Batch of 2 targets.
Target 1
Amino acid sequence: MSKFSFKNSLSCAWVEFVKWIVDARMIIVLCLCVFIYSFVVEPIKANAELMGEPMNALEPFIATLNSGMVLLIIPLGFLTLISDFPKIDGSTIFYIFRIGKKSWLCGQILRLFMMTAAYILAIFAASVGGVVTSGFTGAEWSLVATKFASEFPEQSGNFGVLLLPENLYNQMTLPTAVMESTLFVIAYLFSLGMILLAFSIAKRKTAGIVVCGLVIALGAALCSINTKLMWTLPMAHSIIWLHYTEFLREPIFPVFYSALYFAAIIAAALSFCAISLKRFDYDIISSEVYK
């Protein structure tokens, strides 16, 4: 059996990532982009036109990653796209035997990171692409985000205002909002992929998909009723504005703890993968993998 080789891992990850990119299921990403433009970009853009002020081009992206409704759709779409991850059949067993278990596992983790990054990049393009010519770029929140509700009190409850709550622009700079929102949503999606990988190696892929689906659905439900139990699931940790009140500097839940939460999930899943892979039987048949 081959020893660990990062080169083999990277090659494995890249080949499978390219196959994923050209898969017909990518139509889901196109549908998601259309949904984001209609659901997020257009309401904020309408407020900017009404106010006669430009929005920051990054604000729709921040709104996308902090909307409870969109953050129900985003992980469900991602789970659908990676539902066959990792593919383990007769030919895969031979490939694992050839490059080694450690190299293969590292390759799958690299592939998962590539898929997560590509998915977020598509969301970024859908959010920013429609306003890059009409908005401005910079490190400051726009007046559309911070002053629209006060200048148009009769419109203070419209959806474009709700997409950028005071918990965001009162508590952090725009670059911080972009960075933390992106990193925590990536961590959320990556955690789901690691859970699916762990179940697949244990030959329980169907159970893994069900568990991930329940994590997404229950997380969205608990966030919608704003209960303390929401912090037991990843979704609340990925929505930055939930960590703060509208005005008080003291966070409801420290962002650092959310980072530790995701690190613990990923570490636990990785440990489970390593243990299960040691017991991996090369004589299994593909039908056993999807129990």
Target 2
Amino acid sequence: METTKDVGAFVIVETAIEDIRQNMFTDFNIYVSIFASKELVRITDSTVPTVEQVKNMGYIAGTYGNRIDILCDIVDKQLNGKESLLGIGTLTCSPKDFCTLYCPKDGYYGKRLKYTITNLHE
């Protein structure tokens, strides 16, 4: 894995095959890892975007927003329960370990969302 020296926020999507039945992949999980440099996690009135801009986009930010929580909310609204999403089937929150902490290296903080694909489209 390459390391980055960039300060920023990152979203990484990975898949895992959980079960094979009759020589067919049947159960999949999608993992969305969202993380940022620790100095970028808090959103205030002087950051880009500002707390007010986040609120105007329809997301909850409080007085001091948390960039990771806001990005998790955005991703979840795009993926959770959508049918026929990009031809892969219905994605739902995993019943176990849906949201876990994810810190890929020192100086970064994040969360990992886990979704299950229940009806893979052929």
